[in-house]
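Section 5.1 Outputs to date
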Amino acid sequence: MPHLIERLRKGQTWLIANYDRWWNGSMPDAQWWDAFNLWDDLDYTLRFVYKFDGCPIEGGCSDKTPMVCRGCGNTLTLFMNS
């Protein structure tokens, strides 16, 4: 389980770092969504296989991130720029 938590933390860091590139069209959609879907799968696995409750991100998911985990939201949430 600690390995999954570490992967979620690193994955969220990558998604945050690359969100603007994807949003502005300088990153292929497939690359972004593959990473996002993997992050979602890891979050799901952590909760439903290991019965983890809460947020795997140190300090909790920020409202400044493009996504929050299922512990911080009712479901995995992706925030879109307006």
